[in-house]
Amino acid sequence: MSASNHSGPHYLKTPADDKHFKELRRRVREVLKTLPESRLRVSRGKAFLLPCLYFGLYVTALFQTSYGFFCAVYVLLGLMVIIIFLNLIHEASHNTLFKNKRNNERFMLLFDMIGANSYMWSKRHIRLHHNFTNVEGWDSDIEKSKFLKVHPGSVKKAGYRYQHLLILIYPLFITNWFLIRDFKDFFYPRMIVRKTGGAPFKQYLKLFFFKIFFVGYLVVIPALLTPFTTIQIFLALFMMLLTAGLFALTVLLPPHVNTGNQFPMADNEMNLSQSWLMHQLNTTNDVTSSNWFTRHIMANSNFHIVHHLFPNISYVYAREVTEVIKKYNREAGLPYRSYPMVTTFKNHYKLMRSNARPADILEEDM
Fold first, then answer.
1. Most buried by CB count within 10 Å: which residue of 21, 28, 242, 316?
2. What is the DSSP letter of 287?
């Protein structure tokens, strides 16, 4: 399906919600004027520091003679993949890392170098997930696999009755993404991302070049320069991707895919039942924890509502802008939800368990 034929579902137009968002945006702009620009310079400094740390760890691995230390370094590389993604790649995709849009686009190549395909991920994240959060058939983030029924209103999937047990394989998420899903997005027409149109030929070339590059520097070069066997190195790569998958779950699962959020469906005329503002507030939640680790390592990903309402604001200002949103929503009677991370995981399990029951397929809303 091409983007020209399917621009996506349409939100309900409500003057009251438009007025709410206009006032909220005005208050956010006023607060941003009071916050130091030096935070952005620190964020941009990470654009040099974190890639150096990643490739510095990689070089360190090449000089290891102990297989245990070699694997430990690869585990650290797995952590660095997610730290780089949260602090740099995600920011660059929204043009908030650098002032110049072209510099952000160039920087996205780092994502290709550390394993993902930046072209398809940007289409999935920007054009689908942000525009149609939790909408069946349009949010590629809930297009997990043919085995998982994530949206309560979606069709039954193979083995869906036991899907709540499949959470044990969730850590394979990054392994599947880097080594399988990226290729499916390019070559399997039924993937949701294909609704945005096909990819230029040069993107196919880039896909294969960087996937070969990724396996080359993490497997082939170590096989030539270290005393370890190819099988041992592949095992270390798997440990790296598994670590990345585990870390990624703490960021990707809490804000959307749980029983606290709505999972809308467009009607036959491609209309949604609420405004864009209410849709974002009803499909997204924050995570209550906020500390040094969430601010500097996880890039304030716990403040997720602000990111969906104002994706062009850097994460370095997310905490203060979230306070503006919370205050205004209390005044205006608008929803704002924040849960402890453990609660979001419990609610995710409840969602998957509920979707595994045949009777629940008749229920429209959570």
1. 316
2. E
For the stretch 341-363, pLDDT in tens is 999 999 999 998 888 775 433 33
202 has a pLDDT exceeding 50: yes
Evaluate the CA torsion angle 97, 103, 104, 108 in order and state its sign: negative
Residue 151: which of 159, 162, 140 has the closest Cα?
Answer: 140
Tell which phi-psi region holds residue 154, choosing left (phi > 0), alpha (psi between -120 and 50) or beta.
Answer: beta
Q: What's the rounded mean pLDDT across residues 122-140?
A: 95
Distance of CA 45 to the CA centre of its chain: 22
Q: Is 290 left (phi over 0), alpha (psi -120 to 50) or beta?
A: beta
What gap in Å lies between CA 177 and CA 183, rounded to an integer? 9
Q: Which amino acid is at 174?
A: I
CB 178 within 8 A of CB 241: yes
The amino acid sitting at 209 is F
**CA angle, corner 316, sides to 314 and 317, nearest 5?**
80
Q: Where are the alpha helices (DSSP H) in the chain?
A: 15-32, 38-62, 67-84, 90-93, 101-107, 109-113, 118-122, 173-176, 182-187, 201-215, 221-225, 230-252, 276-283, 292-296, 304-309, 318-332, 341-355
Q: How far apart are CA 140 and CA 132, in angstroms?
A: 9
Cross-strand pairs, 363: none
Q: Is 10 helix (H, G, I), strand (E, B) or coil?
A: strand
Q: Is the pLDDT of residue 103 over 90?
A: yes
Residue 338 sits at φ, ψ, to 5 deg, of -140, 130
Q: How far is residue 192's CA from residue 296's CA, in Å, rounded to a whole number?
A: 33
A 10 A CB-CB count for 336 gives 16
End-to-end CA distance of the chain: 29
The backbone torsions φ and ψ at residue 189, rounded to the nearest 5 degrees and listed phi first, read -60, -20
CB 324 within 8 Å of CB 28? yes
Task: Give the number of other Cβ atoms within 10 Å of residue 189's Cβ.
Answer: 8
Q: Residue 82, Cβ neighbours under 10 Å: how many?
A: 24
SS3 275: coil
- Please give the single-letter amino acid code of residue 213: F
- C-alpha separations of 8 from 131, 150, 151, 284, 304 in Å: 9, 20, 17, 19, 23
